[in-house]
Amino acid sequence: MTTKHYLLLLLIVLFAGGLRFTGLNWDAKSHLHPDERFLTMVASSITLPSTIMTYFDTTASPANPHNRGFSFYVYGTYPLHGTKLVARLLHRDTYDEIVLIGRALSGVADLITVILVFCIGAHLTKRNEAGLLAALCYALAVVPIQLSHFFTVDPYVTLFITIALWHILRGRIGFFTGVAIGLAISAKISAILILPVLFLCLISLWPWRGNTPAIVKKRKLVLIGGFLSLVGLLLTVRVSYPYLFSGLHLNPLLLANWKQLASFDGPTTSFPPGLQWVNVSPLQPALDLIVFGLGLPLSTLACMSIIRLALAFWKKPRWNPMFFLVLWVFFIFGYQSLQFAKPMRYFWAAYPSLAVFAGITLYQLLRFISHKIRARYVGQLVNVFMCASLFLWPLSFVSMYSRPHTRVAASTWIFTHVPPQSTIAWEHWDDPLPFAIAPYTPSSYTQIQLPSFDPDDAEKIQKIQNVLTRADYLILSSNRAYGSLKRAGARFPLTNRLYQRLFSGALGFDLVAQFTSRPMVPVPGVSLCIRIPGFSYGSAATSLETCNTRGIHIVDDYADETFTVYDHPKVLIFRNTQHLSPSEITTRLHE
Question: Which letter does DSSP use for residue 395 in this model?
Answer without folding.
Answer: H
